[in-house]
Design goal:
Helix content is 75%, strand content 0%. By secondary structure, the protein is mainly alpha-helical.
């Protein structure tokens, strides 16, 4: 069953069943008995293990001979492409997050700049009044 295959990959990756279930939001009993899984859980598992061939996970009713000869890893080139796509997606997500942060910071700085301009205008106006008073008293 599919859970057997998932257990193989978990063992291969060196993670615990508990961590796997916690990371995917599954009950801790999820892997304790053979079962069919829903499409959404299947998708979560494939996202969690991007190096796994979807066919390997879903084709669990193959003969034992084929089962012994099939591999669950995709070809190396596909792994590299998937890794690059994931890396680029992470970079893009980080850049978007940084852009959002900088946009907020820019808005905050623009507001502060406007406030300081207003303060400067008030101080300048007061200085003009003081200079006028000084000239009036001197003259």
């Amino acid at each position: 069953m599919i859970t057997k295959r998932i257990l193989q990959v978990i063992e291969y990756r060196g993670i615990t069943k508990y961590k796997f279930c916690a990371d995917l939001g599954l009950s801790h009993a999820f892997l304790d008995r053979p079962r069919e899984i829903s499409t959404d859980k299947h998708a979560k598992i494939l996202a969690y293990f991007p190096e796994i061939s979807p066919d390997w996970v879903k084709c669990f009713e193959i003969t034992s001979t084929i089962r012994r000869t099939r591999t669950f890893l995709m070809p190396q080139r596909t792994l590299i492409i998937n890794a690059n796509i994931q890396a680029n997606a992470n970079i893009f997500a980080n850049l978007l997050q940084r852009l959002e942060h900088l946009s907020k910071e820019n808005g905050r700085l623009e507001a502060k700049n406007e406030y300081l301009r207003e303060q400067l205008a008030e101080v300048t106006e007061k200085n003009i009044i003081i200079e006028d008073l000084l000239h009036a008293n001197v003259g």
